[in-house]
Amino acid sequence: MVSEGAREPARVTCPGCGDSAAARAVPEICADPASVPDGLADRLARQPDAASRGDSWLHFAEGLLMAGVGAALAYSGIQSDEPLYTIGGSLLAVLLFAGTVLVVRGEARGRRVVEAGEERASELWRPASYCSACGTVFFPGGDPWEGPLTPEQFQKFVWTEAGYGKHLDTELKDVALPPGIPVRAGGSPDHA
Ligand SMILES: [Zn+2]
User: Which UniProt keywords apply (predicted)?
Assistant: First the structure.
């Protein structure tokens, strides 16, 4: 878990400030968020958060349980001849069930989007470095981009390329990428 800076094979020079000692690999930072200023690891995240399958099952079970309460209410309405309970309980059960299905389906869609873009996201995200001297992200080999990027530009670049553009925070959707940076996937970095 603990990784020494000395492990770095070659020193990389930051194109933003020229410092060659302050850079750390982005994946290393994200693996150890406690070692960097608050929120930095999130700003460098490779992909949006997606509910796991386990989470979705849990949400499904919770939804069913709540719908079951509505159904029980409806049933007690039938038993005690209280039409209001029957109608209210049935409505509640149907709404809760429909809502649960929507939530779980939305989560599955989110997972599919993340999985579909994973390869491209990794391709860009893994080789990137973050310079703590000037707070920029860059690609040590100069590929696919040789200039410095702010963490926001970096995330927008990676996420757009990977097809996660819709999941960017509102303020990140407005972040401008440097002119000339090669955005190939989707081709519309400014439109989500
Ligand atoms: Zn720098």
Answer: Membrane, Transmembrane, Transmembrane helix
pLDDT, tens digit, 9 for 90 and up, residues 46-93: 999 999 999 999 999 999 999 999 999 999 999 999 999 999 999 999
pLDDT tens column, 156-166: 999 999 999 99
Domain assignment of residue 173, yes or no: no
Range of the domain at 88: 53-112
Q: Using CA atoms in the order 31, 32, 34, 39, what is the torsion angle rounded to 10 degrees?
A: -40
- Number of structural domains in the chain: 1
DSSP readout, 124-149? HHTT-EEETTTTEEE-TT--S--S-B
Query: Which residue in 171, 178, 176 sits closest to 190, CA to CA?
Result: 176
Residue 94 is assigned to a structural domain of this protein: yes
Question: Is residue 82 a part of any domain in this protein?
Answer: yes
C-alpha 41 – ligand 1 centre gap (Å): 17
What spacing in Å lies between the alpha carbon of 39 and ligand 1's midpoint?
19
- Span from the CA of 82 to the centroid of ligand 1 (angstroms): 72
What is the Å distance from ligand 1's center to 134 Cα?
4
DSSP 8-state code for residue 23? E
**What distance in angstroms lies between residue 141's CA and the mean position of ligand 1's atoms?**
15
Distance 154 CA to ligand 1 centre (A): 14
176 inside domain: no
